[in-house]
Design goal:
Layout: H1 2-9, H2 19-24, H3 30-42, H4 44-52, E1 63-68, E2 71-76, E3 79-80, H5 82-86, E4 99-104, E5 110-114, H6 115-131, E6 139-143, H7 148-160, E7 163-166, H8 173-183, E8 187-191, E9 194-196, E10 199-201, H9 203-213, E11 219-223, E12 237-239, H10 240-245, E13 256-257, E14 261-267, E15 275-280, H11 281-295, E16 303-306, H12 313-325, E17 329-333, H13 344-352, E18 356-359, H14 361-370, H15 373-376, E19 385-389, H16 395-405, E20 412-415, E21 449-452, E22 465-469, E23 479-480, H17 484-491, E24 499-507, E25 513-518, E26 522-525, E27 528-531, H18 532-540, E28 545-555, E29 559-568, H19 578-589, E30 598-601, H20 615-624, H21 637-648
The structure holds 5'-O-(acetylsulfamoyl)adenosine (7RM).
Residues 267, 313-314, 389-392, 414-419, 440, 501-503, 515, 517-518, 524, 527, 529 line the site of 5'-O-(acetylsulfamoyl)adenosine.
């Protein structure tokens, strides 16, 4: 870890936006940023009221913020419809026939939906949901491929006040069961399948498996994407297209309270059970709208593309709600970046004239490895702005992105935020902030970010500490669904009235924030949060496994890879296939992203005298092959020396 910090510190290349970019940008000077930032911190109510007024409210708020730590209410007394803001609003502001979504399927099929068409589809599906008994506040689990209908389903839920919970299509049936149970969902929206790397992902099959265990789902609406034969259970499963034929393409958007729940999104924490992060309507919409507008400098002729999946928070805030509230044209792509080869993204950028491109460092590293010949074959001159999210970007990857993809012409916004924060918290503003490779730079409007030491004192420049947010912000999570005490404990327990992000960070002498990584037992694999405890409990759920410890190891492309240490039960003999079986078991329990890269079978795990597994030692072992830190609390050193020998083999 200390090495990584040093390389960050020695980074002193500074890149300023070109005069041409700044001139046209929404925020064009640091003076303007500082003035607005100061206002947003000193007078948050007037700052956020001004932003909120750009959206449509069926009833105005009485108070901008009601802060009863750690519970915030934003725009209290107001009523709005989130879907109306993302769709209907554009029918009367000149964008009716503007492309909202330009979609490309992995096999190469294409569709374009204008705001008018999107409106019709969202209305139809809102009617379909209502006709199938879904009411306001009901939970709807969405398990879809990256097709426009994923966004349509989310917007239709918002339109009728139902609470959606999107589950990433790469997650397993068992993950679906956990989320159905925790949210108490009564309806599921899914598809027969989707395309990924030339293969069909059988989504409905996973849903069928999940619904054998969880009986609370009354209706499962299935979008036909692949046309493959699937099982449709009478009385429970209905086809999207057949239901849509029966209903009208208009639907009146009812206003909901600003604090009406909008969605639950599950994310990993340091204990086994994923947390249902609850976001509400008014504040979340204002946060995603405003951050999109300023950080992606959204202009009416932009063609914006965020490569995330709607199953992650990035897809919620920066594919669905933020960009659509801004009325931008966006590209949506179904499949993998390397299908049919690593030129796919560059081909899409050239074909549709993408101006703003938002992706993850793990993808950038994979592109670097694949070779320059792929971007070299394409004209990327339409690009004007680049973004990254998900993990710290290493300076080498930043430079490649800047030079090879952006031709040194496009500013890069390295955006730090979390599922919990709902929208981007720390990021350059592309028209003014001087950037350095590897730093997310400065806090966004309204974000009172700081770095504190264990005692709660603010750290000086270059001193590492915990990243915290000292004031509430509109798109903050409202609670962990069904578990207010876990909400308090996880985020508000370190310092009174202050949000702890769980990341370690430091600032440099210019005030830039350098995020080092997680402080808790959470891995970041390809930009996705994965609790070590989740993977461990998946391993232990296998009948042969007695105990497991999971750690991350630096991985060239994924950022971190999953390494598992496993002790088999007494009397179970390791077979040649044991490692493979256990890897498959984890993939089945959680999803392919959690599949361990390595499994080490060991007769014992390093433990403290009180029996706690010392993951720190395992982490150091896999990273360096040795152990240097304090091991005086270790119960039995021979466990470590044996592991060390095994790892060398
Ligand atoms: C948006 C998202 C959140 C965690 C967060 C960090 C890491 C995200 C950056 C980053 C350094 C970044 N939500 N993280 N963005 N680290 N620089 N620009 O990723 O809830 O899935 O993950 O991701 O550790 O706490 S998330």
């Amino acid at each position: 870890m200390s090495k990584k910090i040093e390389s960050h510190l020695s980074e002193n290349r500074v890149f300023k936006p070109s005069r041409e970019f700044s001139k046209k940008a929404r925020i064009s000077s640091m003076a303007q940023y500082r003035r607005m930032y100061r206002e947003s911190i000193e007078k948050p109510a007037s700052f956020w009221a001004r932003e909120a007024k750009e959206l449509h409210w069926q009833k105005r708020w009485k108070k901008v913020l009601d802060w009863n730590p750690p519970f915030a209410k934003w725009f209290t007394g107001a009523r709005l419809n989130v879907a109306e803001n993302c769709v209907d609003r554009h029918l009367t502001n000149g964008r009716k026939n503007k492309a909202a979504i330009i979609w490309e399927g992995e096999p190469g099929d294409q569709r374009v939906l204008t705001y008018h068409q999107l409106h019709q589809e969202v209305c139809r599906f809102a009617n379909v949901l209502e006709a199938n008994g879904v009411k306001a506040k009901d939970r709807v689990l969405i398990y879809m491929p990256m097709v426009p209908e994923a966004a349509i389903a989310m917007l239709a839920c918002a339109r009728i006040g139902a609470v959606h919970s999107v589950v990433f299509g790469g997650f397993s049936a068992e993950s679906i069961v956990d989320r159905l149970e925790d949210s108490g969902a009564t309806a599921v929206v899914t598809a027969d399948g989707g395309y990924r790397r030339g293969k069909i992902v059988e989504l409905k099959k996973s849903v069928d498996e999940a619904l054998q265990k969880y009986k609370g789902v009354k209706r499962c609406i299935v979008y036909q994407r692949t046309g493959e034969k699937i099982n449709m259970r009478r009385g429970r499963d209905v086809w999207w297209h057949k239901e849509a034929e029966k209903v009208s393409p208009s639907h009146t958007p009812k206003g909901f309270d600003s604090e009406h729940p909008l969605f639950i999104l599950y994310t990993s924490g340091s204990t086994g059970k994923p947390k249902g992060i609850l976001h509400s309507s008014g504040g979340y919409l204002v946060g995603s709208y405003t951050s999109c507008k300023y950080i992606f400098d959204m202009q009416d002729d932009d063609v914006y593309w965020c490569t995330a999946d709607v199953g992650w928070i990035t897809g919620h805030s920066y594919i669905v709600f933020g960009p659509l509230a801004n009325g931008v044209t966006q590209v949506m792509y179904e499949g993998a970046p390397n299908h049919p080869d690593f030129g796919r993204f560059w081909n899409i950028i050239e074909k549709y004239g993408v101006t703003t491109f938002y992706t993850a460092p793990t993808a950038i590293r994979a592109f670097i490895k694949a070779g320059d010949k792929f971007p070299d074959r394409h004209d990327l001159s339409s690009l004007r702005l680049l973004g990254t999210v998900g993990e710290p970007i290493n300076p080498e990857a930043w430079m490649w992105y800047y030079e090879k993809i952006g031709s040194k012409r496009c500013p890069i916004v390295d955006t730090w935020w979390q599922t919990e924060t709902g929208s981007i918290m720390i990021s350059p503003l592309p028209g003014c902030t001087p950037t350095k490779p590897g730093t997310a730079t400065l806090p966004f409007f309204g974000v009172d970010a700081a770095i504190l030491d264990e005692e709660g004192n603010e750290c000086g420049p270059d001193e590492g500490g915990r990243l915290v947010i000292r004031k509430p912000w509109p798109s903050m999570l409202r609670t962990i669904y069904g578990d207010r005490s876990r909400y308090r404990k996880t985020y508000w327990n370190d310092f009174k009235g202050i949000y702890t992000a769980g990341d370690g960070a430091r600032t440099d002498k210019d005030g830039n924030f350098w995020i080092v990584g997680r402080l808790d037992d959470v891995l970041n694999v390809s930009g996705h949060r994965l609790g070590t405890a989740e993977v461990e409990s998946a391993l232990v759920s296998h009948p042969d496994v007695a105990e497991a410890a999971v750690v991350g190891r630096p991985h060239e492309i994924k950022g971190q890879g999953v390494v598992a240490f496993v002790t088999l039960k007494e009397g179970v003999r390791a077979a040649k296939t044991t490692e493979k079986t256990l890897k498959g078991h984890v993939a089945k329990a959680i999803g392919a992203i959690a599949r361990p890269d390595e499994i080490h079978l060991t007769p014992a795990l390093p433990k403290t005298r009180s029996g706690k597994i010392m993951r720190r030692i395992l982490k150091e072992l896999v990273a360096t092959g040795g152990v240097t830190g304090n091991i005086t609390t270790l119960e039995d050193f021979s466990v470590v020396s044996n592991l060390q020998k095994n790892l060398k083999k």
